[in-house]
Amino acid sequence: MKILVAAAVLLSAVLVQVTWAPALTIAGAFPNLVLLTVVGVTWAKGVRVGMAWACAGGVLLDLTAAGPLGPHALALLAGAYATGFWARNFDPKSFLHPVVAAAFATGLYCITLLAADDVLGLPMPPVALAWELTVAAAAYNAAAMLAALFALRARPDTVGSTR
After folding, report:
1. I need a surface site. Which of 63, 71, 109, 134 has the fewest CB within 10 A?
2. Three-state SS string across 87-99, please?
3. Which of left, alpha, beta for 100 (phi over 0: left; psi -120 to 50: alpha)?
4. Residue partners of 117: CB distance under 8 A and separation at least 6
């Protein structure tokens, strides 16, 4: 049953991200719901679970994109790994650390996607534009993570997760 719920949450995040999230664009960026889900799961459940979610979510995102399979999965894995390292070394009850981890994971995600596009010979935006979009996405995802933390911590039954 846990696997079905996890699959439903991840599939929902992917579908909302590729359909409705682009309508929420601010400064050229929109929330990366799959990345935020992966960061949240990695922070709450640990790096192994987070990496599994990253791989599955990345493949689902790759299936919705026009390019090859793999770049989104690789980018999400980089974010999950960094978040797992961060979560092991900082206070898991802090509001600040998951928010900063989401921003940092967004930066890693964007850099990894750009590197994959370069290696695969796919079109890439100019460096200045890529930098602006990465900063905007990191700020957007950090704000979204903060909102998600407030919403989740307001419910007492969701706070007790362990890694």
Report:
1. 63
2. HHHCCCCCCHHHH
3. alpha
4. 67, 71, 123, 124
The pTM for the full model equals 0.90
Can you list the domains of the chain with their CATH numbers?
Answer: 2-156 (1.10.1760)
Q: How far apart are the first and last CA of the chain?
A: 19
Distance CA 35, CA 14 (A): 10
pLDDT tens for each residue of 67-118: 899 999 999 999 999 999 988 888 777 788 999 999 999 999 999 999 999 9
Query: What is the CB neighbour count within 10 angstroms for residue 25?
Result: 12
Q: What six digits make up the tokens of 42?
A: 């990695």
State phi, psi for 136 to the nearest 5 degrees: -65, -45
* Residues ≥6 apart with Cβ < 8 Å to 63: 69
Residue with tokens 């400064």: 27
Higher pLDDT, 158 or 92: 92
